């Protein structure tokens, strides 16, 4: 009897942790690789097998339902995990059919037993009879009569997510780009590094410079921790969209003092680290705040040894202890559904629910209101979310603007140009409100970051 190979065992462990323990795939992966002694090319195989299986879970479940002689809910969860891994090898990776089937059967035999192994063998042989495109034509609704239903299955996204992303694109005037966005969500993201100014030079980072951010580099591969500047905390891993959020806040013209900055929702600390470096170059200092103690510890670790830091605090951002007008610049990187980062957080699409929007929206509005109170007259607030969903972007900003006469909407788009210090203008990035910015994975190869600039009215 063959034993399951370590790479597939590690991927199976990741799926089990995500399903049973609500783990995040990217956090479960390193431990699984270490337990099974997987490294190098095998580690890359495991990463794609686990992450790709989770991304395409919706389609694979539809395929399996067509191949199983019982309701899918009656299939043991452990067997279902293995069958999904088998589907991804057959339909999403360059693994020969005989190898994909035999290794998955070995895995089921080891984890569940011989009876389940025979069942898995029969099911996967049926799966192997068609390629992914052919399966989509068989199991997805007709795109002509049910375009949303087709997209749900063909691109493996929940229906409410497809609808919310479609509405966001329509508000930006680009409804025809929905399939391109959904396809981009299923592409493994590039690993992007950031050189924190004054602490690391861009030349210390491997790879090509990012197209827009003056601080970033697209990694050519390998473990980022092997890069000296990253290991020493002078550089880090950070999506280019997040780099642009920090850049936009720092690049906003400001009259009067510019000495004290605030990152109101700083965890885990990536944007705060870049802002601290930018603040230090001007003689300013940043307060990095996080409501949850364990996330504040992550911020402290990220900022360890960094200049430009006044303090890391643990405060409720909706009711903080600072006096009104205490800061010159404030970043609100608000808690959100994270639907703009589905490329790198594959489990989020299955874990989030439409109901989450109703719970998050009051918090987002309260945080933005609080930030406006905390910035001095003439100061600026940048509101950002890693989500393009209108309920978390346009609607939050619009509701806050209606309730206040002491703030005006600025032009964030003007901050993402070569004139504002970028390598190149960021094309076609207009958001759903005039002057707001919306980045897109399919267009800019970044997370779908939204940002808007608000300026506190100066005293007359």
Tally of helical segments: 19
Low-pLDDT parts are none
| β-sheet strand percentage | 5-15%
Q: Give the total of domains.
A: 3
CATH class of the largest domain: Alpha Beta
- CATH architecture heading of the largest domain: 3-Layer(aba) Sandwich
The residue fraction in helices comes out at 40-55%
**Number of E-type strands:** 12
Q: What is the approximate shape?
A: globular
Write down the CATH topology of the largest domain: Rossmann fold
Please outline the major beta sheet. Answer: 8 strands, mixed
Cα(first) to Cα(last) distance is: 82 Å
Describe the structure in your own words.
This protein is α/β, with parallel strands linked by helices. The chain has three domains: 6-132, NusB-like (N-utilizing Substance Protein B Homolog, Chain A, Orthogonal Bundle); 143-185, no CATH class; 238-456, Rossmann fold (3-Layer(aba) Sandwich). It contains 19 helices and twelve strands. Strands 5, 6, 7, 8, 9, 10, 11 and 12 form an eight-stranded mixed beta sheet that branches. It has a four-stranded antiparallel beta sheet with strand order 2-3-1-4. β5, α14 and β6 (285-289) form a beta-alpha-beta unit. α1 packs antiparallel against α2 and α13 (240-251) runs parallel beside α14 (270-280). The radius of gyration is 23 Å and the shape is globular. The N and C termini lie far apart (82 Å). The relative contact order is 0.10.
Helix/strand layout:
Blueprint: H1 6-21, H2 25-35, H3 40-55, H4 57-67, H5 77-92, H6 97-111, H7 114-127, H8 132-139, H9 147-154, H10 159-171, H11 178-185, E1 192-195, E2 208-209, E3 216-218, H12 228-231, E4 235-237, H13 240-251, E5 260-263, H14 270-280, E6 285-289, H15 293-303, E7 309-313, E8 327-333, H16 348-351, H17 355-374, E9 375-385, H18 394-402, E10 407-409, E11 437-438, H19 441-444, E12 450-456
Parallel strand pairs: 5-6, 5-8, 6-7, 8-9
Antiparallel strand pairs: 1-3, 1-4, 2-3, 9-12, 10-12, 11-12
